[in-house]
């Protein structure tokens, strides 16, 4: 990857990167969210208000045709992610978990 001894820009950047970006599951590269959609699409200001919020509806419309929406939802349920994941809001995922007896169903 790079030589630790050289102090290069790549070395400096790598040391500050959060590990989670390096450990992304392979399915994430196939998500429509990775296709140039603005990050704030997935984290609307009022993202927990539900399906009546236009920003939430826009994100959910993309998720509805995403080939990895199920994997995305499973990921969010297991990790407690914020924002829109797998076509669901944080509130909707809390309901899923509560309906499963308090544990993620994955």
Query: Which structural class fits the helix and strand makeup?
Result: mainly alpha
* Residue runs with pLDDT of under 50 for 5 or more positions: 8-19
N-to-C terminal Cα separation, in Å? Answer: 34 Å
Instruction: Tell me roughly what share of residues is in helical segments.
Output: 40-55%
Account of the 3D structure:
This protein has one domain (25-99). It is an all-alpha fold. The chain has helices spanning 9-16, 19-22, 54-64, 69-79, 90-99. The chain is built from five helices and no strands.
Layout of strands and helices, then pairs:
Layout: H1 9-16, H2 19-22, H3 54-64, H4 69-79, H5 90-99
Outline:
With 106 residues, this protein is mainly α. It is built from 5 helices and no strands.
Tag the structure with descriptive keywords.
106 residues, mainly alpha, 5 helices
